[in-house]
Amino acid sequence: MPRYYVTTPIYYVKDAPHVGHAYTTVNADALARWHRLVGDEVFFLTGTDEHGQKVARAAEEQGMAPLEWTDQMAPRFAEAWAGLDVANDDFIRTTEPRHREAVQRFLSAIYENGFIYKDTYRGLYCVGCERYYAADELLEGGRCPDHQTPLEELEEENYFFRLSAFEDRLVAWYEADPTAVAPESKRNEALSFIKGGLRDISITRTSIDWGVRVPWDDEHVFYVWYDALINYVTAIGYGEDPERFAEWWPAVHHLIGKEIIRFHCVWWPAMCMAAGIDPPAHVQVHGWLLLGGAKMSNSSVNRITPASLAEEYGVDPLRYHLLRDIPLGSDGEFSAEGITARYNADLANNLGNLLSRVATVVGSKCGGTGPAPDPASRLAAVAAEVVADTAAGWDASRPDLGLEATWRLIRETNAELEAAEPWKAEPGPAVDAVLGSALEALRIVAVLASPALPATTREIWRRIGLDGLPEEQRLPAAAAWCGYPGGLPVEKGAPLFPRRKD
Ligand code: MSP
């Protein structure tokens, strides 16, 4: 059985989860759900990044010990994701013993392989980014290009990772698999950075002790990024359960925002090579959710939490908007108007309307019992195309294209009903055929849309009288025409998506 291992970045616990974090997590969840649907064995990992100066300072500001504080913050992420119907298989915290042990094993392997050495480092550090900057990377006045804040001058004895030794191997890796980093523009960006020459990087600190201790030198803790990246192998048993590790690695799909390309597309593959394991198979880079043209961040969205949006619009409409309107790889403006427009067009007018008119007419013309589909319906061919196009979208890590394809079946079924007008016709075989085919289309849509709309598709499934759950079906068999058996009770129920006026 094919395996699909998908990860999100592990989020800093400094701030509460915001919609930008939800964007990545919901996309990863939907991709995981799609792969479960096609029968892959799936492992979906997310979690929290809890070490480093940023977190230590935030805890200090609260008058708390770092762990006490992260113990309070980490569950907020887990709860936010549960609230969005995110079904991750594991939630990793970098403060867990399993992670500390994996980091120490992984970095000891790199040390023993001769790619770590000690030196003195003096440089300009941005606590917000948790990294050093070279002078030519800074804005005027020596400010951080991301945070626009002044940098701190630090001088320390550090251990260094010999990143410079991996230039050729990284280029060879990129050339051997042109799809390893997607989209192509981001691949090219990472590759040209590598070709521009790589400097060794400082990977330990002595000035803070909130981190994983360097096993061969107690004075040092590992730098937060170095510790964090290793989470991806900790969770699948690196150095602890070799059989499990071999099952899941390197066939991983890392989903990341574009600001952390360098860490995932340069450092991380080099770290893997240095530790003697394969680099990750796939890094999928996505763009940003923007608010008024700027990257959405905690300072800009303190009131727009995922939970408040879910309460306002519903969990599934929020998920649908994130998946459908901001294609993976591009930036997208986030706005209330955008969610509402998508909600009214696709959910209220198309999907909700289809279910409600079919259930109403089955009630009035078929005594509430759903008829079987017409094997010769025009919609059978449409459905076959839609299934193929939907799969192509999801397989290309483009939920927006997958959903766009699925919605074609909804629109065509609505059009078919409008042409046949079964609500005006006498009950009989012709009406049964039209309604049975519309029910069959709804059944197929429920399966295909289940990765995006888990709760809604369960409700559709139940209302058209089917047993089990749409997400328990397996494609492609579950999308074959005439899967709806007929003779099932169809329930009208309240509108799934009442039209919004805002
Ligand atoms: N802790 C590091 C990642 C370590 S991974 C080994 C980190 N954490 S973070 O909390 O800052 O989260 C960054 C990730 O959150 C981004 O890469 C992206 O996936 C997501 N997003 C944060 N803001 C976002 C937007 N405005 N838009 C889209 N995604 C955003 O970096």
Number of strands: 19
Average residue pLDDT: 95
* Quaternary status: single chain
Q: Specify the helix fraction band.
A: 40-55%
User: Between the first and last Cα atoms, what is the distance in angstroms?
Assistant: 47 Å
Helical segment count:
17
Work out the radius of gyration.
Answer: 26 Å
Q: Which secondary-structure class do the elements indicate?
A: alpha/beta
Low-pLDDT stretches: none
Bound molecules: 5'-O-[(L-methionyl)-sulphamoyl]adenosine
Largest sheet: 7 strands, parallel
Beta content: 15-25%
* Overall geometric form: elongated
Protein described:
There is one protein chain. The protein has 502 residues and is an alpha/beta fold. Helix content is 47%, strand content 16%. It has 17 helices and 19 strands. The chain has helices at 19-37, 53-61, 66-83, 97-112, 167-176, 184-195, 224-229, 231-234, 242-248, 261-275, 306-313, 315-325, 336-365, 378-395, 399-420, 429-449, 454-463, and strands spanning 3-7, 11-12, 41-49, 90-93, 116-126, 131-133, 152-161, 181-182, 201-202, 204-205, 213-214, 217-222, 252-257, 282-286, 289-291, 294-295, 332-333, 369-370, 488-489. The strands form 5 sheets. Strands 1, 2, 3, 4, 8, 13 and 14 form a 7-stranded parallel sheet that branches. A 4-stranded antiparallel sheet has the order 6-5-7-9. Strands 10-12-11 form a 3-stranded antiparallel sheet. A hairpin with a 2-residue loop joins strand 15 and strand 16 (294-295). 5'-O-[(L-methionyl)-sulphamoyl]adenosine binds next to strand 2, helix 1, helix 7 and strand 13.
